[in-house]
Structures are given as structure tokens and as C-alpha cells.
Amino acid sequence: MSSIKEYLSEDHGRCDELFAIMEDAAAKSIESAKEAYDEFAKNTERHFQMEERVMFLEFEQKTGMTQGPTAIMRHEHIQMRNLLEEMRKAIEAKDKDKFFGNSETLMILMQQHNMKEEQMLYTMAQQHLSADAERIIDMMNSMIVE
């Protein structure tokens, strides 16, 4: 069984791969990017939900820290959701420049966000939640986002 840190870090990698596929599709044709965008957005939202509805709550209950790193990560999730929405609108409007402007901002924010999670929050979570890691990972695995 992997650790919470390994599990969520691997999911970051999957989302990063889908991001690259989406950008490649948009570079070829903004019209053809919708399917790749939908796949990326769905998987990214699932990742956010796994954190917000499972791991963050477990961490906060165990540590009592509700206004610390999880609050910052939730705020960044909101920023990334807003950028994803702007990218969706750009695809609908067939506005390649707007799409890539927002995707570039999203990429920078994701890189910084993922680094903070992987180097700080996931490490802290692993320290506090390792005894419950299998149960928490099972709960995250069962998440379905439509």
C-alpha cells in the first residue's frame, strides 16, 4: 500500500500528463481541444475533491489546524477552478490566445501549488495520518466526480 504522499503525488503526475495532452490538442486546433480539456478538468476536479472532502478533513480533525496549509490549498483550488472555467469559455469562443494565456497561468499556479503540497502538506499529513493511510486512500479511490 502506498502512502498518502505517494498516492496524491502520483495523481499530480497523472493530471500533469493530461494537461500536456490538452495543450497539445489546443496547439493543433482550439476546436479539437474540448475533449482533452474535459478529461483534464474532470481529473483535476477529482483530485481537488479527494483532497478537500477526504484528506484535508482527516488532517484537520487529527491536527486541529483548520486555518493553516489546508485553507491555503483550498483557496488555490478556487483560483485554479476559475482559470479552468476561463479556459472552457475560451474553447467555446474558439479564442486560442485567451486559452493559452489562462493555461499558462494555470500551469504556473499548479506547479507552485503541487510543490507546496508535495513538500509540505503531504509530508505533514503522512506524519499525522500514517496509521489511517489505507482507509484514507481507499476513501479517495472511491471518489467519483461527474
From TrEMBL:
Tell me which positions the record assigns to the signal sequence. none
State any GO CC term.
Answer: plasma membrane
Q: Which residues form the Hemerythrin-like domain?
A: 6-125
Superkingdom classification of source: Bacteria
Q: Which Gene3D superfamilies match?
A: nmb1532 protein domain like (1.20.120.520)
Task: State the InterPro entries in the record.
Answer: Hemerythrin-like (IPR012312)
Q: Which residue ranges run through the membrane?
A: none
Q: What's the protein here called?
A: Hemerythrin HHE cation binding region
